[in-house]
Amino acid sequence: MTAAGLAQMAVLVPVRRLEPGLAPMIHELSEAGFGAIIVVDDGMSATDHPAFAALQQIPRVHLLRHAVNLGKGRALKTGINFFLDKLTGFSGLITADADGQHAVSDIVRVAEALGTRPRTVVLGCRAFSGDVPLRSRLGNRLTRIVFHFFSGHKVTDTQTGLRAFSSALLPELLALPGERYEYEMTVLAHLSAKGIYPVEIPIQTIYIEGNRSSSFQPLRDSMRIYFVLLRFFASSLISAGLDLVFFTFAFWLTHNVLAAMIAGRLSSLVNFALNRKLVFHSHRSVASTLWRYYLLAILLAAISYGGIRRLSEGFGWNVVLTKILVESVLFLLSFSAQRLLVFGSDQRG
């Protein structure tokens, strides 16, 4: 990319604590020719304020401050808001971490991959091989598997902080929920649901002192991340609740499993509407997806009916509890089949 191209790009760096490599990194970014470098102090120690303020002397650097720690997600949104409100004529924004994990040469490569492509996101992805801290290796692998299951799209490094976004995407990303590390997963899930899949660029895998400077708390922050993924696909839980209410009421009236199953399936209209628009963001017509959906629904209902009859009548199990068990098992099959066979054929269009 030419110097003029980099001049149309800004870099956003959220900072929780001042690391020795931050000032050299900001100097290098300025010398590389980026048009703006936005550095957000997310509640760092007061003893670091003088050194942080000194960054203002570097050309094209903009310093923003949170009086207290509000989280990485909020720091990113503070920087994005400044970018949209105060800077004009920029084609893209690159986010990078402040802990030395991202080489400036890789930041430049990610910016070059973005170029001037509209509505595009580029991820700088680490290899996770060799001398990588165990918590980082396992955390990324588990999150990658969960993200792939729910989105149907493989991302090599779901937790990378090195990302490039075309300016056209930023207004909608600014409005997304999430104040801490889960915000970055919210962004990926949101874009994936809209059929916008990231371009991946391999980068160096750099961990300084076993990644001890990271503010990431594995248990707490991982749970936030997984909750984001589940939130995007909650319509099945809503529909399952309605289904259970209709089923229980009908069985109480008729004491007939088949009649109760038919009544329960009234919730499928809600499930179809929610899944089509909110979960899978299908662009296919209602007619082309409706018949596939109900063909699948009939098949799953037959399996569910058989399972409930066999377990409740053969073993004397409570009918309602048996239904919950059987349909919980079928949930994973239903979700995957809807993603791949009902709504998924046009998702990438």
TrEMBL record:
It comes from the Bacteria. It is found in: Membrane. PROSITE patterns: SUBTILASE_ASP. SUPFAM superfamilies: Nucleotide-diphospho-sugar transferases. The keyword Transferase applies. The chain crosses the membrane at residues 225-252, 290-308, 314-335. Residues 11-163 form the Glycosyltransferase 2-like domain. Its main location: membrane. The lineage of its organism: Bacteria, Pseudomonadati, Acidobacteriota, Terriglobia, Terriglobales. Pfam families: Glycos_transf_2 (PF00535), GtrA_DPMS_TM (PF04138). CDD domains: DPM_DPG-synthase_like. It comes from Terriglobus albidus. GO terms for molecular function: hydrolase activity; transferase activity. Keywords: Hydrolase, Membrane, Transferase, Transmembrane, Transmembrane helix. One of its GO terms (cellular component) is membrane. This is Glycosyltransferase. GO terms for biological process: polysaccharide biosynthetic process; protein N-linked glycosylation.
